[in-house]
Write a structure and sequence with these properties.
By secondary structure, the protein is an all-alpha fold. The chain is 65% helix and 0% strand. It has helices spanning 4-11, 15-31, 37-50, 65-68, 83-86, 98-110, 129-142, 145-150, 154-162, 168-181, 225-244, 247-255, 258-267, 272-300, 302-317, 327-349, 351-354, 362-379, 381-392, 394-422.
Length: 423
């Protein structure tokens, strides 16, 4: 029998999650014949890794370059626009792809479960605890993971679950942890790790719960000053890269708001009110572009969209500022094109690099990245562009915007190199 106490020790999850999943997994393991210590140890090691100790029943989404390739993968059944993100990994074993969500639905119904949701119509239903656990058991049985587990072949099990050997080190560590604590499932069970887990006869009086020692401490690595310093420097470098990644977008924000209004007010005889009306029209177009950017990012990925936007902003910087001297028509073209590019790039810019931070400091690092980005890309943009345009003409303001696009392209390139090093 899987108890919350044993599950917490074997998987390293919180007490709340152990209480939630223990009865569900106990039923799942009985139904899908995960009924030996070796099978159970491998099962817990794999779902523990895939769900980060039951904390994540939906795949964390960047998208990373690997996740961006989910889109259009016919082997996963992702045939409709947006399927890559919509049918990302769900459940304790991260069921991925439209076809696999359909198989989970049909398989659980065939297994005798009632009121199984339609995971094709509602993929997020697979993240609910009961379906997250049951879909993992179904996958385990249908893909014959018990056979590899009976051989104690962690590599073979990992290849079935993951399709490769990603996270093998963590999965192996989790397997050893599970073996360490699973004997507490039944103090009467034989020492042979392959022996079935058999419940003993009910005692006359309740037995006290076994005194499970706390999980082994993780020494040296997290306490090593060199590791701490390396983590800090890596995060700082990534924050700086993240600050320059949206530079083109942040600079463009002021180039279509504060800068042109200042230019019109100081150096032309036009009415600021009339120009504000043009800005409002451009802003409404920009809102539509923001919505479109989300749909485009779902299809091609956030970083490819940011890359294409930076190139487009670079092209825009070569001719657009001069349009401010071309009368009402030129000003309108300048504002509308500028807000379209701003809408496409601005919504995706802040998270492009921040999504790669580790979960335990992602929010702090993202805040620093955003602060640096506004300081470098936006804080001085109106003043710098206005000074350059005053002394060297409007073409110099375009050069300033071009420099922002170049920094964005460089930051995305450096980010790609760092991701390649990590992978």
């Amino acid at each position: 029998m899987i108890t919350a106490q044993v599950l917490r020790a074997a998987v390293g999850c919180t007490a709340t999650l152990a209480d939630l999943y223990a009865p569900l997994l106990d039923e799942v393991c009985e139904r899908f014949e995960i009924n030996t210590k070796r099978r159970l140890a491998h099962f817990l090691a794999q779902i523990g890794h895939e769900s980060m100790s039951f904390k994540c029943t939906s795949e964390l989404w960047g998208p990373t370059p690997q996740q961006a390739r989910y889109e259009g993968r016919h082997d996963l059944g992702n045939t409709q626009p947006g399927d890559g993100s919509r049918f990302r990994g769900h459940g304790l074993i991260q069921t991925t792809g439209r076809d696999n969500h359909v198989r989970a639905r049909d398989g659980l119904r065939a297994a005798g479960y009632e009121s199984v949701p339609d995971f094709e119509a509602d993929p997020l239903a697979l993240t609910q605890p009961e379906w997250a656990a049951r879909s993992a058991g179904l996958f385990w049985r249908d893909h014959k993971c018990n056979d590899a587990a009976d051989r104690d072949d962690i590599v073979a099990v990992t290849k079935i679950v993951n399709g490769g050997k990603n996270g093998l080190e963590d999965r192996t560590a989790r397997l050893k942890r599970a073996y360490q604590y699973l004997p507490y499932v039944d103090a009467m069970a034989p020492a042979d790790p392959v022996a079935p887990i058999v419940s003993p006869p009910a005692p006359a009086a309740p037995l006290p719960a076994p005194d499970i020692p706390p999980p082994p401490a993780q020494p040296t690595k997290s306490e090593n000053p060199m590791v701490i310093a390396g983590t800090f420097l890596w995060g700082l470098a990534q924050s700086l890269i993240g600050a320059f990644a949206p530079l083109a977008s942040f600079a463009l924000f002021h180039m279509v708001t504060v800068f042109p209004l200042s230019w019109v007010f100081l150096f032309t005889r036009e009415s600021p009110v009339r120009f504000l009306i043009i800005e409002m029209i451009g802003a409404m177009v920009g809102v539509v572009a923001i919505v479109a950017s989300g749909m485009i990012a779902d299809r091609v990925g956030r970083k490819p969209l940011l890359l294409g936007s930076a190139v487009a902003i670079a092209v825009y910087s070569g001719f657009a500022p001069q349009l401010l001297d071309a009368g009402a028509f030129g000003e309108t073209v300048y504002m509308v094109l500028g807000f379209v590019l701003l809408g496409l790039s601005f919504g995706q810019s802040s998270g492009a690099i921040a999504s790669s931070f580790a979960r335990n400091y992602r929010y702090t690092a993202s805040a620093l990245t955003s602060d640096f980005a506004w300081l470098f890309g936006a804080g001085f943009a109106p003043l710098a562009a206005l000074l350059l345009a005053t002394h060297f003409g409007l073409i110099s303001a375009g050069a300033y915007l071009l420099s922002g696009a170049v920094w964005t392209l460089l930051a995305l390139w450096l980010s790609g190199l760092r991701e390649a090093e990590v992978n």
